[in-house]
Design a protein that fits this description.
133 residues; single chain
């Protein structure tokens, strides 16, 4: 009986994790759809990202470099290998100096600090969207 209960608990836990993952995927998909609109406001974004949207506090990386950084930390391919290597060096230096490795969510928060996506940045948005798909 205990073994049956453990198996059911394990199945329930797996189902719950799958559901949470689907919810996250849907939330990101909706957010990236909103970001295609250059008039998007912070209030339209998920609560976790509202506070950083359009704050313009990012000083170390450009939006393009942050896109590359997202691709690097998630092992996604990048179109510009030379720029990718430069960003990798900056990330390694940052990790060495601050002792913290960046994750995709912290990088996305920094990416969103640039605010609404301009027409010329739509390819970057598509690349970031692929990271979170």
């Amino acid at each position: 009986a205990q073994q049956s209960v453990r198996q059911l608990q394990s199945k329930l836990q797996q189902a719950q994790q799958q559901w949470l993952q689907q919810q996250n995927t849907q939330e990101f998909a909706a957010m990236f759809e909103l970001l295609q609109d250059p008039t998007v406001s912070a209030e339209q974004l998920p609560a976790a990202y509202r506070d950083v949207f359009a704050k313009q506090q990012e000083q170390q990386f450009s939006r393009e470099q942050l896109t590359l950084a997202l691709e690097i930390v998630t092992d996604m391919p990048s179109p510009d290998q030379a720029a990718r290597q430069q960003v990798q060096l900056l990330l390694l230096s940052d990790k060495h100096n601050q002792g913290v490795a960046l994750d995709k969510h912290s990088l996305l928060r920094r990416w969103l600090q640039f605010g609404a996506v301009q027409a010329k940045e739509l390819p970057l948005l598509q690349r970031v969207k692929a990271v979170f798909a």
